[in-house]
Design brief:
The chain is an alpha/beta fold. Helix content is 42%, strand content 15%. It is built from 10 helices and 8 strands. Strands 5-4-1-6-7-8 form a 6-stranded parallel β-sheet, with helices on both faces. Strands 2-3 form a two-stranded antiparallel sheet. Helix 1 packs across helix 4 and helix 3 crosses helix 4. The chain is globular.
Length: 215
């Protein structure tokens, strides 16, 4: 049985406005001016502390304080504008019905990852196969969180027939490091940089066509 692993921000969910608003709330709490949303989004994908240190470089030496402000505000407002990308739910349903094992491999904080999956009724697709920021000793682009996520799938072992789906270079490099295929989501807000990928998809349902060849 084969598996497909999904990133969260910019892949399953459009959380751009919530993330930018929370970073700017944190900046305002510290007496700093807001950043354009595009400037904030360039720092998404490597965990909350990376996001904060690079979006608030003026206070990067006190990232623990930044995290406390950010976490409090995000926990209260993270569901206000977040949406699923088109066809995410129907794609997950189709993959489940076709026998694919499904997992989440994200650098998003664990508390937010699980809350958002529950909010949209997606937790049932993944069960225990969710690795979020803080759940693993390493984060993408390391292959370790992908391996740990696979181990939660009835002890699944990664193979070249498995897939990592995401919108960032960290997702695609993670796929390369783990020896799985990578599907890059052009509709997200991450940066590909010079990372390699297997396919590009413009809408989530396009994934079904590529995965069909692995069944």
């Amino acid at each position: 049985m084969n598996a497909v692993f999904f990133d969260m921000d910019g892949t399953l969910i459009d959380s751009a406005r919530d993330l930018a608003a929370t970073v700017n709330h944190t900046r305002r709490d510290l007496g700093l001016a807001d950043l354009p949303i595009e400037a904030v989004l360039t720092n998404v994908g490597q965990g909350a502390r990376y996001l904060l240190a690079h979006s608030i470089p003026e206070k990067a030496d006190d990232v623990d304080r930044l995290w406390e402000i950010f976490r409090s505000h995000y926990a209260e407002h993270m569901l206000e504008t977040v949406t699923l990308y088109p066809t995410v739910r129907t794609t997950l349903e189709a993959l489940r019905d076709r026998g694919w094992l499904l997992g989440v491999n994200t650098a998003k904080p664990s508390f937010a990852t699980h809350a958002i999956l529950e909010h949209f009724g997606l937790a049932r697709f993944f069960g225990n196969a969710v690795i979020a920021g803080g759940d693993c000793a390493e984060m993408k682009p390391s292959a370790l969180p992908l391996r740990e996520c696979a181990a939660r799938m009835r002890g699944h072992r990664l193979s070249s027939r498995d897939w990592m789906v995401g919108d960032s270079w960290t997702d695609m490099q993670c796929a390369t490091n783990a020896g799985v295929k990578g599907a890059f989501c052009t509709f997200g807000f991450g940066l590909l940089k010079d990372s390699r990928y297997t396919v590009k998809i413009n809408r989530m349902e396009e994934l079904l066509r590529y995965l069909k060849a692995e069944e």
